[in-house]
Design goal:
Layout lengths: L5 E13 L14 E13 L10 H12 L5 E5 H4 L3 H4 L6 E4 L5 H21 L6 E10 L3 E6 L1 H9 L14
Helix pairs in contact: 1-4
Length: about 170
């Protein structure tokens, strides 16, 4: 019996500046700096519904909502924000104080969590048995990327657990 594995990927870009905690990596990263962030979500299934993993419009809407708070924002960790809180108040509507070091890896996890919350209606309404969020990748510009993936989803698919699909384009019930 053959197991099909289908992935649908969608990408959204946003502009943001961030400041990493001192000592995270090079000294330049602890200074406020910006990127064009490219966020790619990967959904995976072994069974198509109406010939697709999921309607791209649904994925796009959830991804836009998951990223919107960071678009054109300054993302700073709580410890850093305490040092220049007065200076930040002028731009409070675009400053996002987070309880984590805003590295690409941690942003991938945060956006995964936000995207998952927005996708719950699809993941639980009969889709959860066939549809999984495999990963969220965050690229800082074109040169570097970090990816968070759900290890349970990846293991299930690599082991071939799930139903076999004898047709690629049929409607699942």
């Amino acid at each position: 019996m053959r197991f099909h594995k289908f992935r649908a990927k969608r990408t959204r870009s946003f502009e943001a500046a961030h400041q990493l905690l001192e000592g995270t990596c090079c000294k330049a990263c602890s200074v406020i700096h910006g990127h064009t962030f490219h966020v790619t979500v990967t959904l995976v299934t072994q069974r198509l519904n109406k010939g697709m993993v999921l309607d791209f419009a649904i994925i796009d809407t959830a991804l836009a909502q998951a990223c919107s708070e960071f678009d054109h924002a300054l993302i700073v960790p709580l410890r850093v924000s305490e040092h220049f809180q007065g200076q930040l108040e002028e731009y409070a509507d675009r400053v996002r104080v987070v309880d984590f070091n805003p590295t690409a890896e941690n942003l991938a996890l945060e956006i995964y969590d936000r995207f998952r919350l927005r996708m719950l209606t699809h993941l639980e309404a009969g889709e959860g048995d066939r549809l999984h969020i495999e990963s969220v990748e965050v690229k800082e510009g074109e040169a570097g990327a970090a990816e968070f993936y759900d290890p349970d989803t990846r293991e299930e698919l690599e082991d071939g657990v799930g139903e076999a699909d004898d047709h690629l384009d049929g409607d699942s019930e």
